[in-house]
Each structure stands twice: as C-alpha cells, then as structure tokens.
Automatic annotation (TrEMBL):
The lineage of its organism: Bacteria, Bacillati, Actinomycetota, Actinomycetes, Streptosporangiales. It comes from the Bacteria. This is NAD(P)/FAD-dependent oxidoreductase. GO terms for cellular component: cytosol. Pfam families: FMO-like. InterPro entries: Auxin_biosynth/cation_transpt (IPR050982), FAD/NAD-bd_sf (IPR036188), Flavin_mOase (IPR000960), Flavin_mOase-like (IPR020946). Keywords: FAD, Flavoprotein, Oxidoreductase.
C-alpha cells in the first residue's frame, strides 16, 4: 500500500521490532470517510496536519448512495451542513438523498489525495513504533492519532428470533430496503416504529396491493419536521440548555398538538419524556410525515405488539398471536462494530458505544484516540458531527509535531 500524508514523515515505511510486516506511518489516521471522516480530514488538512482517511467502501458517499429512494434528511438544511461548506440553497429546506450525495462528493474533492477507499481497517491496537497501529487488509498503518468515524450505523442488527430458519418469506434488515415497488403485492411486516420504520411503512402504502403491518415493542414518541412553518430542530437547538424535565414537557406539548392523543391509537401513549428517553436509550422520536399516523388511525397500517419469533408464514408476537407476512423488514437498529476494531483497547460501554462524558473523551484524546459521529441528539446528528469534528481537529493540530 503506497500512501502519502502531506509531510515527509507521512507515508514512510518502517519495519516493526516484533517482526510484523512493514507499515505506513502517518500523523493522524481517520477510520471511515463518511460525513464525520470527511469533516475531520478536511479540517486537519486545512491546518497542515498529515492525515489519511480509510474507508472500506469503494467510493466516497457510498453509504448514502445505498440509502432508500425518497429519503430526506430529518434535519433542516442549514443545520445539516459542515462548518466549512454550506449546503446549496437550491436544495430547499429538506435535503434529499441524491442532493446530499452530490454535496458529499463535492465536499471530498479538496482532500481526495488523503482518502483511501476500498481499505478495511480490521484492528486498532496500541503500537510499538507509534501510539497506535491499524491492521488493514492492505497492510499495517502506524499513527500518532486515530480518529474513529465509522458511526452509529455500521452493522445492521436483527434479533435472533426463534423460528428464523422456518420462515418461508423474506427476512431483511431495513437497511436493505430501497423502494416500495420491490414489495409489490406482498404483505409486509415492519418491525419497529423508529424513524426508518415509520418512513418505510408510509412509503409501502403507495404500492396499491398488499398489507402493511408495524410491530411495536415500545410506544414511540412523535414530532413533526416543522410546526407553524418553523423546523422543530431550530427549537431543539435553542432548548438544549434547559433542564431535561422542562424539555420533556415542551416535547410532550408539541407531540399532543401535532400528533393528537396517541392513547386512542393502537400505538398507545408513550411513557416518560422523549428527551429523557433519548438521553437514556439513544432512541429519537419518530417523525410524523403526515401519512403514518392518519394511516394508523384509519387502519390502513395495522399495528401489532412486540415480535418474539417467526413461524413458517409470518411472525409471532408477545401475546402468542401469529401474523402472516411475505416479507419481514426489521427496523431494529444497528451496532457500532467498534468492539471488534478495539478488541484490545477496553474503552467501550456494554452497548459498544464510546464514552461520551467530557472527562472520558479528554482522557482518550490525550492518548491519541478520538471519536466523531457517535452522538445523535435532537439538535441534529449532522450538526453534532460538524461541531465535534472541528473540536477534534483543533485539539490534534494544537499538539506539537
């Protein structure tokens, strides 16, 4: 693997004293070249820090290219852009998938020489010649700093339901969903009523034939994208310094005004406050697109309880009932996959997420290990990435080299 990193020492090849194959040396290695990785790479490059970014996909923005048709960002345009490059006004208020891919492709251009696609980083461990060593499928990389930017959605996760092998239909993770026409005439059960599950269930209504059922374990909170012409994300940014209990009250009032009384629907009234749930579990409110909740109330979307297993012709719910399905789409979340990357570096919590407290992140930063893109607040995941990327880049650039 031949790489360069902007200064003479970046790209240097050395032999390690323990006999491992020669590797590449760079000051900072960024793992992942999605939104977070590109932001960090651009900001480090602007400060003349030697940096290389590695991504297992073949092209920049491939993760976004593979998202489903009709996807729009749930964060408003001006709070979804990176600090050093605005999203074009022509994209409108709610940016589409294809527009965002176009934006990321252009955003990557100034640092193309820093990006190595098609390279999978498999392990990260403390190094002998430098602070860190990265084992990739193209050789070893040594770096003084490592910035992990693989994100919260690296590994789609489907529960190990009993009866999976008996099911005669299709079982797919929601990440495999592309367009409603792929399920023409099928009875589809969407497991989960989070943001993606609600989007997919709403889109499936347009197929004409075939039923749509949503399985719900925990009653979801709902928020509209905007209210009275004002994007709700704007309010979240302004409210972030309020006490959590006060944020919960405000969120519940907005939910009641926009979504009505959910206790009168099959979804049921969600327990507790939406901001408290987000902080404790990482589960964001679902977005009411004006289609899903009316369809639930009218019966066009049927709601069933928690899926606890599969049978030959469908799913089994917690009450023991069997429900038929040609396809089961599991909108059941993701895993970070960091546990395998950082197998010898015990810094993750029980769910595989890096520490989020300020003292913990500072301690890791002092050791040259950084994380960007592992927080998803209501103020906006992309906005948070931009803020965090700038902070990390400044901290790395300020260190003597």
């Amino acid at each position: 693997m031949t790489v360069t990193g902007g200064q003479e020492r970046s790209g240097t090849r050395r032999s390690s004293p323990d006999g491992r194959a020669p590797g590449t040396v760079t000051h900072t290695a960024v793992v992942g070249a999605g939104v977070a990785g590109l932001a960090v790479t651009r900001m480090l490059d602007a400060q003349d820090v030697p940096v290389l970014a590695f991504d297992r996909n073949d092209g920049v923005a491939d993760v976004w290219r593979e998202r489903y048709d009709g996807l729009r960002l749930n964060s408003v345009r001006w709070l979804s852009q990176m600090p050093d490059m605005p999203l074009p006004r022509r994209y409108g208020r709610w940016v589409t998938r294809d527009q965002f891919v176009e934006y990321l492709t252009e955003y990557a251009e100034p640092v193309r020489r820093r990006i190595r696609t098609g390279i999978d980083v498999r392990r990260i461990r403390r190094g002998s010649l430098s602070r860190w060593e990265l084992e990739t499928d193209a050789g070893m990389v040594a770096a003084h700093h490592v910035v992990l930017c693989t994100g919260l959605y690296r590994q789609p996760w489907i529960p190990d339901w009993p009866g999976r092998g008996e099911f005669h239909g299709r079982l797919e993770h929601a990440s495999a969903y592309r367009r409603p026409s792929d399920y023409e005439g099928e009875d589809v059960v969407v497991v989960g009523a989070g943001v993606s599950g609600v989007d997919i269930a709403s889109a499936l209504l347009g197929r004409g034939s075939g039923s749509v059922t949503v399985a719900v374990r925990t009653s979801p909170h709902f928020l509209p994208r905007e209210m009275w012409g004002v994007p709700l994300q704007n309010l979240s940014v302004g409210n972030r310094y309020l006490p959590l209990w006060l944020q919960d009250i405000g969120g519940n009032v907005i939910q009641r005004l926009s979504a009505g009384d959910l206790s009168r629907t099959a979804l049921g009234r969600p327990r507790g406050g939406m901001f408290t749930r987000l902080q404790r579990t990482g589960v964001s409110p679902s977005v009411d697109d004006g289609v899903f909740l009316p369809a639930v109330r009218s019966g066009r979307i049927r709601v069933i309880g928690e899926v606890t297993g599969l049978h030959a012709k469908g799913v089994v719910t917690a009450d023991g009932e069997e429900h038929s399905a040609d396809t089961v789409l599991a909108s059941t979340g993701y895993r970070t996959g960091l546990d395998s990357l950082l197998e010898s570096v015990p810094v993750l919590d029980s769910s595989g997420v890096p520490p989020l407290s300020r003292p913990a992140t500072r301690a890791l930063a002092d050791a040259g290990l950084h994380f960007v893109g592992y927080v998803s607040p209501l103020t906006g995941h992309l906005r948070e990435i931009g803020l965090r990327a700038r902070w990390v880049a400044r901290a790395i650039a300020a260190e003597p080299r």
